[in-house]
């Protein structure tokens, strides 16, 4: 059964088709047959007639984006590199399939090549390369806010148990800076909810819209993080995309994909309502979400799955909960507002941090190291029990996929580690029969209970 996240029932089937570069440049291509969320959100019928994301820049803090793929032609701006400073973001440095490229395609895919289309195809992506580290993340967020981004997509997560309030101080300061600049910051909740389930940053930072993952039926992904910072959810199971090699990967799973789709939704709202404050954009996404878990807010899906048509058309009461900004207001009221000052670095390598802030960062680093040493001693004293409770910080949410299935097969069984879309050389496989899990509905019939 398809997840009912539309605002009204569909009256006609979506015409699925893979288009080529011969499609008229002035028109937006139909989505690829595997992009089932287009039907769930009624993107072509109810969303695109209102907004396609024009005049909105979505900064993507990730592994960079391979710019010369036909699916991304004309949609990627020159960005920055906070890894080694050697690129302008338009090269994907991911060692695997191309994480940043895949996330960009979910947001701004243009339909060329494989036929993959993003939900906000008239937006632009500003790629910012980040590999690991709170300092670099803080620099990347501030760079995005200073370079006209209206949305920041962070399909990344790292363990946050080491930090007060589960957020590195310099990252929290940067998020507050972005909020002051009227920027929506979106991050993935994390992918080990059925394991360690540790809090993750930047999702846990005040002012960040944290996103969990669900399947096409609205069921939470088994690995989506169970944390009170989760505010909304979006499709994160059976969600493929393209890799940096241009090949289509089928049926991936992870809160990375859910985050990218939510960032695309925020871009659509900001396109339709250019004067709407970031705070209200987030509140609309929360206030119009479909409650799919236990009644009310829960730790896997927050207030529910976002419903883009409703968020574009319906007002929400001013009293609607807005946890990301409520927590940010509390943080600001506490007086913890002192932060770094940045100056442009000659040569375009990104901003520099002034010396005094480096010293503050060094103190934080020393405290973190001391905490880690104490944790190791405690673990050893307990005979090694709980040694996996605080794994080393990591950069990528997802890991390479296990060798499951064949081209065109349904998603792997739950319990796999957060999987990338599995790349296949062939790009023209027919989808599995209707009714199989994660498969786009082809009948055109409305899902039961759709409203």
Describe this structure in words.
- With 451 residues, this protein is of the alpha/beta class.
- It has helices spanning 37-40, 43-47, 99-108, 134-146, 169-180, 255-272, 278-287, 308-313, 323-333, 355-381; strands spanning 57-62, 80-81, 124-129, 151-154, 158-159, 184-188, 200-201, 208-214, 230-235, 241-242, 248-250, 342-343, 352-353, 422-423.
- The strands form 4 sheets. It has a 7-stranded parallel β-sheet with strand order 2-3-1-4-6-8-9, with helices on both faces. It has a 3-stranded antiparallel β-sheet with strand order 10-11-14.
- Strand 10 (241-242) and strand 11 form a beta hairpin.
- Helix 6 (255-272) crosses helix 7 (278-287).
- It starts with 36 loop residues before the first helix and ends in a 28-residue tail after the last strand.
- Residues 7-26, 338-364, 368-420 and 422-451 have low confidence and may be disordered.
